[in-house]
Amino acid sequence: MRRLAVPFLLAAVLSGCTSTDQGAPTTGNPAPTTGTSTGSPAGNRPKAVDLKTLDPCSLYTDEVKTALGVRLVTPRDPQADYGEGSKTCSNNYEAPAYSSSIYTVLNGGVDRLKQTVGEAKLTTVRVTGYPAYIDKRDTGAGPACDVYVDANDGQLLLVNAVGGLGEDKATVDGACEQATKLAMAVGPVLMTR
Questions:
Q1: Are 87 and 104 in contact (CB under 8 A)?
Q2: Strands 88-93 and 70-76
Q3: Are 99 and 92 in contact (CB under 8 A)?
Q4: Does the pLDDT of residue 42 top 60, yes or no?
Q5: How far is C-alpha 45 from the chain's CA centre?
Q6: 190 contact partners, CB below 8 Å, separation of at least 6
Q7: 134-147 pLDDT, tens per residue?
Q8: Angle at 102 between CA 101 and CA 104, to 5 degrees
Q9: pLDDT attached to residue 121
C-alpha cells in the first residue's frame, strides 16, 4: 500500500507546479527574471503571428477597451526604426495619467532587442503564453515602459505606456503596470490572428 501512496502523493505535489525553465518549477505565473535568457524559439509561443499583416488597432476589441477604460484608439504614422511595413496604434485612457501605443516591430526579434536595449536592462516575463521582455525607463518627457512580445521570428509586438501627461503622480512602475495590463489584454486577441 505504501508503494502506491508515494507515487500518487508525488504526482499530486508535482501537478501543482508549472515552469517555463527546465529545473525551475514555479506555481502559477513565473516571476520575472533578468539577464541571461536567449532568443525564444517558435516552440515557446502559443501561436506564431505574422505581424506584417497585423493591424495593431484590431487588437483593441470592445472587451479590451471596456476592461481597461480605453477612451480613444487612433492609428498613427509608423515608426521607420521598426522596419518597412511597421504599424502603430495609440490609445488614451479615461484616467489621464498614462497613454499607450502598440507597434509592430518588423526589423528584428529578441536577439536584436537584446543588442539594442541591452540584455541586462530587460526583465523576462510571459504574456498570455508568449515570451516577453520589459524595459523600464524614465525619459525626459516622463516615465515609460515597453513590453516586447515575441510574436514571431524576427518580429515583436511592442506595447508601451508613457506617463506624465500633466500628471505628477505617474511613475515608471505605474507605466509598467499599465503596459503589462494592455499586453495581457491584447495577448488573447493576438492568438486569434
A1: yes
A2: antiparallel
A3: yes
A4: no
A5: 12
A6: 47, 49, 54, 59, 128, 130, 149, 151, 157
A7: 999 987 778 999 99
A8: 140
A9: 94
